[in-house]
């Protein structure tokens, strides 16, 4: 399958279909470590670069070559978009959004974790009902100032897992932190990193 076919799938003009392994190697730079953005119960998540955006590609672990439909269903947790946010200096006081999409029939709890000193997320935890979306706002801390020549990258980690309907309130998510540990058999905790790039993007060849 050609690259432009994948891009048509991403923009919704073409139905999803089988993707060639060679193509996945191409858009993830052979599943490079530097493209790794997270992990789930059955594999590692990599960032795939297309001309019209960024996609998440999950590579199954070597010992999971046989996976049944139920396991695939449990792996399907939250869709996260975008996977990379670029904030130019001119927009450093403008808030941006990360959209969490739950296309499953289950309730999914999430929490955002980071070492961000310049940004905050709101909400930083929550429960996304079945077949619905949740928007997480990313904004600069009020006391932070920015300089035109500044350039840095920070990471927001989004953890998510299925929870029983009514078993957990949003305020309980952090105190019940063990729900994000996949210690139970069959439990899946998804972990995806969202890159936040502030300042002018460096062009190829620049030092």
From TrEMBL:
Fetch the InterPro entries from UniProt. Answer: Ig-like_fold (IPR013783), Kinase-like_dom_sf (IPR011009), MSP_dom (IPR000535), PapD-like_sf (IPR008962)
What Gene3D superfamilies does this protein's entry cite?
Immunoglobulins, Phosphorylase Kinase, domain 1
Q: Which PROSITE patterns match?
A: MSP
The record's annotation in SUPFAM superfamilies points to: PapD-like, Protein kinase-like (PK-like)
Give the MSP domain ranges.
Answer: 77-199
Q: Which Pfam families match?
A: Motile_Sperm
- Under what name is this protein listed? MSP domain-containing protein
State the organism named in the record: Miscanthus lutarioriparius
């Amino acid at each position: 399958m050609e690259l432009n076919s994948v891009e048509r799938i991403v923009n919704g003009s073409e139905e999803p279909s089988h993707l060639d392994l060679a193509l996945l190697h191409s858009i993830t730079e052979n599943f490079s470590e530097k493209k790794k953005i997270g992990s789930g119960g059955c594999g590692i998540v990599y960032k795939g670069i297309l001309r019209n955006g960024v996609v998440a590609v999950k590579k199954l672990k070597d010992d999971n070559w046989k996976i049944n439909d139920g396991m695939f269903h449990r792996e399907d947790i939250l869709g996260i978009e975008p996977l990379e946010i670029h904030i130019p200096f001119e927009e450093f006081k403008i808030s941006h959004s990360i959209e969490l999409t739950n296309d499953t029939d289950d309730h999914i709890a999430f929490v955002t974790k980071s070492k961000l000193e310049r940004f905050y997320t709101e909400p930083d935890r929550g429960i996304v009902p079945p077949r619905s979306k949740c928007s997480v706002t990313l904004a600069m801390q009020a006391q932070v100032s920015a300089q035109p020549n500044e350039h840095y990258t920070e990471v927001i980690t989004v953890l998510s897992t299925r929870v029983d309907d009514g078993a957990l309130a949003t305020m309980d998510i952090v105190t019940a932190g063990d729900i994000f540990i996949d210690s139970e058999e069959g439990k899946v905790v998804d972990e995806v990193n969202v890159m936040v790039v502030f300042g002018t993007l460096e062009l190829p060849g620049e030092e």
